[in-house]
Design goal:
With about 400 residues, the chain is of the alpha+beta class. It has helices at about 5-25, 65-95, 180-185, 325-330, 380-405, and strands spanning about 100-105, 120-125, 135-140, 145, 150-160, 165, 170-175, 195, 215, 230-240, 240-255, 260-270, 270-280, 285-295, 300-310, 315-320, 335-345, 355, 360-365.
Length: about 400
């Protein structure tokens, strides 16, 4: 052996023994504490994605029975999602083919009367007491909101369990502003007046002696001309030997924000019919105006509305009958616009509106137009385009997955 290997080999052997000894000595020693974990990054918003396929076999390899069953279940799920997405898209397109301000009458039959009678039927009660057996109180009021110059008819009657009239006595009737309203409005000089109910065929009473007691509340004439807020009429009544309590609330807004000038003209523009009503605006702001349109046979046809900002001065309010609505419903011409109401919206205030005087009855009668004069295109806007695009993405994604899962 060469002399140099005599020194190298013992060194290698000594080193190996040392390493082996070190490994053995540390085998039973607990490891040092690990370094502290770095703080987790902020969680990113979850992304909506299609779920992974139920199975991913190698290309050309046959599916197992379990994989085929899973694939069928996944396909059924995606078919359901596709049908739902298609229904959602179709429903949205159908509901927006006419603009919000020009809708079929049958969507708004509950608002077809400009001044619906508000009726109530309740047991005879006193505050904190139990209902009187066999006695019910029926009330009506003409409106919830009233403006300057308006009057509101109120009625009260008692009936038995079969609906037969019962004799009713009004012990006291008072009209005033509730304390919480006067505190909110910081108005203290609000009157409290006796309110006379009659059953003699006057003051709007329909029939004398029928035990239906009636009054006509006229806020401006009863000391509330400069008051804005809730007006409450409270009654203490008696039916037989049973006492009871009844209350009516109306919201009164005496300001007159705008007045009708009386002028109405019509214009056929862009395939739709516009009724243009002249107004003189005293208080600028957002105005909401609603009207009803019948066809020549008297059939309710369209509920039309205006909801836009108006500056002060002489302005026009446009109530539009959309062309596609005419095409679809095929009303008999001429069309009649009637019973137009309007108010100035007052956000973050109470009352939240100031009423314009209503234009009751016939407001305008259109000329006769052929059906071909109206546009066939559905209503479209930037908003509807965005929604259609998003709903369309849902349809496309579901269709893509159905197609993938149908492949052999």
């Amino acid at each position: 052996m060469p002399r140099r290997w005599r020194y190298v080999l013992p060194a290698v052997l000594v080193g190996g023994v040392a390493v082996l000894g070190w490994v053995r000595s540390t085998a039973g020693t607990p490891p040092a504490d690990p370094p502290a974990a770095a703080p987790a990054p902020a969680e990113a918003p979850a992304k909506i994605a299609a779920p992974p396929p139920a199975s991913a076999p190698h290309a050309g390899s046959p599916l197992t029975p379990e994989a085929r069953a899973a694939r069928r279940r996944e396909l059924a799920q995606w078919q359901d999602r596709l049908a739902h997405a298609q229904r959602t898209l179709a429903a949205y397109q159908a509901s927006t083919r006419y603009p919000y301000g020009s809708r079929p009458a049958d969507e708004h039959l509950d608002r077809w009367q400009a001044h619906p009678l508000i009726a109530n039927d309740m047991p005879l009660l006193v505050p904190g007491g139990a209902p009187a057996p066999g006695v019910r109180i029926r009330t009506t009021q003409q409106a919830v909101f009233a403006g300057a110059g308006d009057s509101v008819a109120l009625t009260v009657a008692a009936v038995d369990g079969d609906g037969h009239p019962l004799a009713l006595r009004i012990l006291r009737a008072t009209t005033h502003a509730p304390q919480e309203t006067t505190a909110r409005a910081k108005q203290v000089d609000v009157p409290s007046v006796a309110q006379a109910f009659v059953d003699d065929g006057t003051q709007g009473d329909a029939q004398a002696g029928d035990q239906v007691w009636t009054t006509r509340l006229v806020p401006a004439a009863e000391g509330f001309a400069s008051y804005a807020g809730t007006i409450r009429t409270e009654l203490s009544i008696q039916v037989g030997d049973q006492p009871g309590y009844v209350a009516f609330d109306i919201v009164y807004a005496p300001d007159v924000p705008a007045t009708w000038t009386g002028g109405v003209r019509e214009a056929l523009a862009g395939g739709s019919l516009d009724f243009l009503l002249g107004v003189q605006v005293a208080q600028p702001g957002r105005y909401v105006v609603e009207g009803r349109v019948d066809d020549a046979t008297g059939r309710p046809f369209a509920f039309v509305s205006f909801n836009e900002e108006l500056p002060a001065g002489a302005q026009q309010v446009g109530l539009t009958v959309h062309g596609r609505l005419v095409r679809d419903a095929k009303p008999a011409f001429p069309l009649t616009l009637h019973d137009v109401t309007g108010f100035l919206l007052k956000p973050d205030a109470f009352p939240d509106r100031a009423l314009m005087a209503p234009r009751d009855g016939i407001v305008a009668v259109s000329r006769k137009y052929p059906l071909a004069a109206f546009g066939e295109a559905p209503f479209a806007s930037d908003e509807t385009a965005r929604y259609v695009a998003e709903y369309g993405k849902d349809v496309a994604l579901a269709q893509q997955q159905v197609d993938r899962l149908r492949k052999p």
